[in-house]
Amino acid sequence: MVASSASLELQQAYVELCNLTLCYLKSMALQCAVELGIPNAIHATAVLFKLEHFITPVSPYRRTMIIQRRPYLPRFMRYLAMTGIIAHDTSAIGEDVYRLTPLSHLLVDDVLVNGCTSLASFVLTHTWKPTVTAAMHLSDWFKGDDGPAALVPAEMPFKTAYGMDMWELMRGHPKLNDAFNAGMGSNTKLVLDFVMTKCGEVFDGISSLIDVGGGNGSAARAIAGAFPHVKCSVLDLPNVISDIEPGEARLSTLQVI
């Protein structure tokens, strides 16, 4: 029996609907892998990784998991492998072994492996509870359900959820602020490496550039270093640029405003 085109279309629509509905599990699994230190643990073995490497008494990662939850680790590792975060193999004696993929290489705290700073902080700041919770208030924001304490309509769903914007929240949580800056800085370095390697001609004929909201100056610093003819300026809030070390702005073509 040959399925009709309408039936095939319905099946494909169902698959896409399930994927959209459940895709958040991939993000949460990625966050969990980073918080448990799984990419670092696999890298540290220097051989094919077995679960016993993770829970051995001498493993620095053993403390991240209580003993009652360890039986569930193989199932979680299989899910990580299914999503492509790590790779799964079977050894000659039938043991499950794991290795890094290009994706999980980017989560290792070792610049010699990545060629750039680990993107672990980037992952964590985009999967942390405040960000996810704000996204869950999107329909409330559209409907104007900003809560009884709201004096004016919230500009963004984040403010609907917390009564303040993300920058205000991070000012009260220095560790989160540091993680956010580290994550954006490492992401910027990786993306700009691609841009400057593959599309460097876009900077031809440019004599000056202002990075508005440039954070700690990662992007401007990379551009100024690669293209000395471009005078780069970083424009951001005083509390942001005050964290830039004096030595970081010594390039003659980089100015912090």
Overall number of domains: 3
What number is the mean pLDDT?
83
Low-confidence stretches: none
Strand content: 5-15%
The CATH superfamily of the largest domain is known as Winged helix-like DNA-binding domain superfamily/Winged helix DNA-binding domain
Shape: globular
Largest sheet entry: 3 strands, parallel
Radius of gyration: 23 Å
Strand order of the largest sheet: 3-4-5
What is the top-level CATH class of the largest domain? Answer: Mainly Alpha
- By secondary-structure content and strand pairing, the structural class works out as mainly alpha
Order of helices and strands, N to C? HHHHHEEHHHHHHHHEHEHE
Number of helices: 15
CATH architecture of the largest domain: Orthogonal Bundle
Describe it.
With 257 residues, the chain is mainly α. The protein contains 15 helices and 5 strands. It is globular, with a radius of gyration of 23 Å. It folds into 3 domains: 5-109, Winged helix-like DNA-binding domain superfamily/Winged helix DNA-binding domain (Arc Repressor Mutant, subunit A); 116-198, no CATH class; 201-257, no CATH class. Helix 2 (24-36) packs across helix 8 (120-127), helix 8 (120-127) crosses helix 13 (174-198) and helix 13 (174-198) runs parallel beside helix 14 (218-226). The strands form 2 sheets. It has a 3-stranded parallel sheet, with helices on one face. It holds the Pfam family Dimerisation. Residues 148-243 form the O-methyltransferase C-terminal domain. InterPro entries: COMT-like (IPR016461), COMT_C (IPR001077), COMT_dimerisation (IPR012967), SAM-dependent_MTases_sf (IPR029063), WH-like_DNA-bd_sf (IPR036388), WH_DNA-bd_sf (IPR036390).
